[in-house]
Design brief:
Two copies of one chain form a homodimer. In chain A, 43% of the residues lie in helices and 20% in strands. Chain A is globular. The first copy, chain A, has a domain of 156 residues: Carbamate kinase (3-Layer(aba) Sandwich), CATH 3.40.1160. Chain A starts with 6 loop residues before the first strand and ends with a strand. By secondary structure, chain A is of the alpha/beta class. In chain A, a hairpin with a 3-residue loop joins strand 7 and strand 8. In chain A, the strands form three sheets. Chain A has an eight-stranded mixed β-sheet, with helices on both faces. Chain A has a two-stranded antiparallel ribbon with strand order 4-5. Chain A has a two-stranded antiparallel sheet with strand order 7-8. Chains A and B meet through helix 4, strand 3, helix 5 and helix 6 of A and helix 4, strand 3, helix 5 and helix 6 of B.
């Protein structure tokens, strides 16, 4: 385990893209990302990762019933495109970012994920922000495997422990219900061992099934990560630059959720 | 060592780009590549790699005296761009190609190149053509290292033995002198142990210093590869689809050079 202690920052798919419009970047989010990473990088090392959003999801849906080689080819084509628009934008605006292809450093072999961590480690040592992404990776047994950005973080955290994890989303945190559907939902300040079950039940009962699946499993997975790595996980709006930077630097954001289930 | 036995095919930088115009693709070469790989793939597995051409060389020249992190960032930005134009073009025209980021699977550690070969192996098993590229990779000792596509082939050949290696260039093979400068140069049919020294001396004495450095060292390196791997190395014009396919399938091209220095 290396003592680099970066903060893992996820640029959520619903933040960085318009999720309902295939292949459409949210350039406002890209501008905010530039400000957030550019400023935060002066104070801490960062490993970033971006979700697939409206680039990956429709493509995976379209090709998942076809040949494995088609699925891999088109899925990687789509995720690569989004990642490189983001990294090119950062590089062209002076942020020291480099792309690291997830499917090139993580494969699923018969029993486990095999990881080639050196490129991430060496990039960090050079003062760069490696930007990974959710992707279709190769699997020895199944042919392919779809890794979300959260799972990518979970896998590489075994080699480079994150100081904390920050998820930048298009909403202000984890809500008591789906804020896109109901008006009375509130942001949950803190998710701990004590209220985790209540929070999960609340999310499950009040939201759409689709949304449930997604937010429910994200919170559940992040609570597991927080507990196993003894790490705080922040969920904040990427559109709020101040709150995003606060979270990255480990300060309580004005609005946002911290998942802390290790105490 | 795996028994996949692919043919390694290099899309030379001077073939795939206009070398004298920065960031300029030779679309005629791209069309030829599509025909060559599309047809050859029916008969053999292929690992492809593309040179940096007019994308990488000016950028490396511009940034090599700057901070290491700048050099890495801009070099990778440029090489990635070219590779993805090529892979996107192939994928969009129905060729089962995937990009594999060289700097994500090869790093230079204190004594040697560390390689994560699984993504290449798994891609081949899925019937895909992995397309690697010459790139600025991370080095533990020096910060960065520039690997040509030939060197990438040399490094991964230790794990997946190539059936043969084919270099697609913008000229018809290895010439007795520089055909862009002199009119009487002839393509050398075969380079063997017996004529290697004469050929090298002939190239060194008749060509420009710049060109010499490049062709001289390429022939020398390929002769070493041929000899150590006991593999034929073909040098043919990528603009000649028939000759390119012949070389890939191990048949003598009408015009071209075979380097066979292992006998």
């Amino acid at each position: 385990m290396e003592d680099l202690e970066p903060v893992y920052v996820k640029l959520g798919g619903s933040f960085i893209t318009h999720k309902d419009k295939p292949f459409s970047i949210n350039f406002k989010a890209l501008e905010k990302t530039l400000l957030i990473l550019g400023r935060a990088k002066k104070f801490t090392t960062i490993v970033a990762g971006n979700g697939g959003g409206s680039f990956a999801h429709p493509v995976v849906k379209q090709w998942i019933m076809h040949d494995l080689s088609d699925l891999i080819k088109y899925c990687q084509n789509a995720t690569r495109k989004l990642n490189h628009i983001i990294v090119d934008y950062l590089v062209n605006h002076g942020v020291d970012a480099v792309s690291i292809q997830t499917s090139a450093i993580i494969v699923h072999s018969s029993k486990e994920y095999k990881v080639f961590i050196e490129p991430v480690r060496y990039a960090l040592r050079q003062g760069l922000i490696p930007v990974l992404y959710g992707e279709c990776i190769y699997s020895e047994t199944r042919g392919y495997d779809i890794l979300s950005t959260e799972q990518v973080f979970g896998v590489i955290a075994r080699y480079i422990k994150p100081k904390r994890i920050v998820l930048l989303t298009d909403v202000k945190g984890v809500y008591t219900c789906d804020p896109r559907k109901y008006t009375k939902c509130k942001v949950i300040d803190e998710i701990t061992k004590n209220n985790l079950e209540i929070v999960l039940r609340s999310i499950a009962s009040s939201a759409d099934r689709d949304v449930t699946g997604s937010i429910y499993s994200k919170v559940k997975y992040m609570a597991e990560i927080s507990s196993s790595l003894k790490t705080d996980v922040y969920v904040v709006s990427g559109f709020d630059v101040e709150d995003s930077i606060s979270a990255i630097l480990g300060k309580k954001p004005r609005t946002g959720t911290v998942i802390r289930t290790y105490e």
